[in-house]
Amino acid sequence: MAAEDALNLLSDLIAKAKRAGADAADAILVDAASLSVACRMGKPERVERSEGADLGLRVLIGKRQAMVSSADRSKLALDDLVERAMAMARTVPEDPFCGLAEPRQLAHEVPALDICDPAEPLPATLVDWAQRAEDAARAVSGVTNSEGAEAGWGRSLVAMAATNGFAHSYQMSSSQISASVLAGDAAGGMERDYDYASAVYFSDLRQPEDIGHTAGHRAVRRLGARKVKTACVPVVYDPRVSRGILGHLSSAINGAAIARGTSFLKDCLGKQILPRGIQVIDDPHRPRGLRSKPCDGEGVANRRRAIVEDGVLTTWILDLRSARQLSLETTGHAARGTSSPPSPATTNLWLEPGPVTVAEMISDIPQGLYVTELFGMGINGVTGDYSRGAAGFWIEGGEIAFPVSEVTVAGNLKEMFLQLTPANDLVFRYGVDVPTLRIDGMTIAGS
């Protein structure tokens, strides 16, 4: 559907809701198309194309709200959608914090973010990329089997309209490639590893040979993994897993958790939570950013923010509802789908790099663990207690010594945040991006 047609459809829908008795209403439409392929052992296994169309309507009657969604856009279906939404809104309990944005909060000017690739790759191109990635991985000495390689592309149109006067649409795209292989044999032990990349523009993806080569070498490096003895040592997190640390931070400062009082950082606004000199940035307007968007999910103007500045927590992550609960102003972080109301979420989030190289960071560690993979979700959001299964490499005398598996890394996130040191190797790859991190004083539970 064309953007103009989508906005016209939503404008008609919210007008119907008003005529049916709603005090306010908003609606969101998402049209999506995707193409994905998978190859294994040099042969294509799957070529799929999918298209989807969905829209959601939220109506408000006083302080009651309801939201319904539908994939059917016929007049009869949309009339029924309004009727169902109104019936639900009349019966649900009141929510004193629900409501649309005020006109002063809306995004009246939206930036051009270059987040939609106008070109769609051919299926044959994706098959070729997946095969080249797997071929490169299987060519690594020591690789004995393959879980396959995949490549994909997708594009979406998002349109939003509300009775407060907001109406806007934008398009976004993404492309991905991945490879996963195994090394070793049943007699001597087998290990699996992978690599993947994603980008807004297909032309910005890393080359498939690089993806495959990295996946293969990672799998081979893990052969001969062993346990280590329980100890309290520095832990170095590879960028593949260090971004999870920042994910725990963003969850802890999410406005919904703060309003419920269920976060271990609930009393830390304006206080030092990271070492001095460290910055955490959230930027919804990063050009070609994987999570960029011109406004938030409630039509509120959004902008780049230093979430943590010089180690000090400067803000919560707020949508309108959580902001009202906390008697604060929204930070423009609302995210939403077609079947649920808005909720707070970060966009392009990253931790700024430090001055040291990874080699320098490791060089003074007599014994420690370099983590490349984490398992399980032993995180207590109320207390900050942290415990996760891990695999990686043992550090001995400032150098990588041997692969390690079947260990647990434990600590408390509040203390871990204050002990972290970032390296200088930040690369924007995932949407939440962090350089290699060192955290001292972690407990490694092994043999």
Explain this structure to me?
- It is a single chain.
- With 447 residues, this protein is α+β, with helices and mostly antiparallel strands.
- It has 2 domains: 3-220, PmbA/TldD fold (2-Layer Sandwich), CATH 3.30.2290.10; 225-447, no CATH class.
- It has 9 helices and 19 strands.
- It has helices spanning 3-19, 75-91, 123-138, 208-221, 239-252, 255-260, 320-325, 358-363, 413-419, and strands spanning 24-40, 43-61, 64-70, 143-162, 167-185, 189-199, 231-237, 280-282, 305-309, 312-313, 334-335, 343-344, 349-351, 367-379, 385-396, 399-412, 420-422, 432-433, 437-445.
- It has a 6-stranded antiparallel beta sheet with strand order 3-2-1-4-5-6. A 5-stranded mixed β-barrel has the order 7-14-15-16-19. A 5-stranded mixed beta sheet has the order 10-9-8-13-18, with helices on one face.
- A hairpin with a 2-residue loop joins strand 2 (43-61) and strand 3 (64-70).
- Helix 3 (123-138) runs parallel beside helix 4.
- The chain is globular, with a radius of gyration of 24 Å.
- The N and C termini lie far apart (59 Å).
